[in-house]
């Protein structure tokens, strides 16, 4: 009996030592400081804004991803913590999840970093259209209703949809300015995606948005 428990202890120790070699742990990514100058003049970006559904698989450089997320929903007034898009009652209820071929991250605007959520590839689940799998980045806009306690259910739906629309337009304009292509998408299997993302019942998937370089 004593021999058996010693063997078991040894096996557990060996497993603990080798398991990090096999597990592909997703790590936090500190984004570089966003570059908040330059870009096309606003009127030019508005002229060029459009939806596109043809993506190259080329990855976005980390600086471009940093600039994109800051433009989308970053903090532009550090003294108040307010953001590049408006939100009703300043609830700031929308979370941007960033789905990449490596895994799923959550954008933390305050720390300007990507927090690891899932190392599984849930990428294809972020939309029903085939081009979703070709693109390097799919943003998933999730409303956290637990931050909206002072509003009715109807207003929670309305406000979070409006907030998402403002963020999505920032992504459209940034993309138009930077030579990226993007499309906002409602065509999502929400129950399947929410399950894969392990969301709480009071977290609602609003829309998703694909971003990448144009297909050559
Ligand atoms: C709320 C919303 C949901 C949308 N859902 C989808 C979608 O699921 N799939 C898609 O290909 N485009 C979707 N679009 C993009 C529209 O089809 C597109 O904006 C429209 O065709 C006009 O084209 P434009 O953006 O180039 O002006 C959506 C746009 C909005 C605002």
Short description:
This protein is α+β, with helices and mostly antiparallel strands and 216 residues long. Helices cover 34% and strands 23% of the residues.
Task: Write up what this structure looks like.
- It contains five helices and nine strands; from the N terminus they run H-E-H-H-E-E-E-E-E-E-H-E-H-E.
- The strands form two sheets. It has a seven-stranded antiparallel sheet, sandwiched between helices. It has a two-stranded antiparallel sheet with strand order 2-3.
- With 216 residues, the protein is of the alpha+beta class.
- The model is unreliable at 15-23 (pLDDT under 50).
- A hairpin with a 4-residue loop joins strand 2 (75-77) and strand 3 (82-83).
- The radius of gyration is 20 Å and the shape is globular.
- It has helices spanning 2-22, 42-48, 62-73, 153-178, 190-197; strands spanning 29-30, 75-77, 82-83, 94-100, 103-108, 113-118, 137-144, 181-185, 203-212.
- Helix 2 packs across helix 4 and helix 3 packs across helix 4.
- The protein binds flavin mononucleotide (FMN).
- Flavin mononucleotide binds next to strand 8.
The 3D shape can be described as globular
Radius of gyration: 20 Å
Q: Count of helices?
A: 5
Measured between the Cα atoms of the first and last residue, the distance is 67 Å
Largest sheet: 7 strands, antiparallel
Small molecules bound:
flavin mononucleotide
Number of E strands: 9
Helix content: 25-40%
Q: Please write the string of helix (H) and strand (E) elements.
A: HEHHEEEEEEHEHE
Spell out the blueprint of helices and strands.
Blueprint lengths: L1 H21 L6 E2 L11 H7 L13 H12 L1 E3 L4 E2 L10 E7 L2 E6 L4 E6 L18 E8 L8 H26 L2 E5 L4 H8 L5 E10 L4
Antiparallel strand pairs: 1-6, 2-3, 4-5, 4-7, 5-6, 7-9, 8-9
Helix pairs in contact: 2-4, 3-4
The protein binds flavin mononucleotide.
Flavin mononucleotide binds next to β8.
């Amino acid at each position: 009996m004593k021999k058996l428990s010693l063997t078991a202890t040894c096996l557990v120790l060996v497993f603990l030592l080798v398991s990090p070699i096999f597990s592909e742990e997703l790590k936090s990514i500190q984004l570089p400081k966003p570059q908040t100058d330059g870009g096309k003049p606003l009127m030019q970006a508005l002229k060029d804004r459009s939806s596109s559904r043809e993506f190259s698989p080329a990855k976005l450089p980390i600086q471009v991803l940093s600039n994109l997320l800051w433009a989308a929903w970053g903090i532009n007034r550090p003294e108040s913590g307010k953001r590049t898009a408006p939100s009703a009652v300043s609830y700031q209820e929308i979370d941007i999840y960033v789905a990449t071929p490596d895994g799923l991250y959550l954008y933390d605007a305050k720390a300007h970093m990507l927090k690891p959520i899932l190392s599984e590839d849930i990428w294809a689940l972020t939309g029903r259209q085939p081009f979703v799998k070709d693109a390097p980045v799919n943003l998933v806009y999730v409303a956290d209703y637990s931050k909206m306690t002072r509003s009715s259910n109807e207003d929670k739906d309305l406000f979070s949809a409006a907030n998402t629309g403002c963020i999505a337009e920032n992504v459209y304009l940034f993309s138009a300015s930077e030579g990226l292509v993007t499309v906002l998408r409602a065509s999502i299997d929400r129950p399947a995606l929410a399950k894969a993302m392990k969301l709480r019942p009071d977290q609602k998937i609003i829309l998703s948005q694909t971003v990448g370089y144009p297909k050559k």
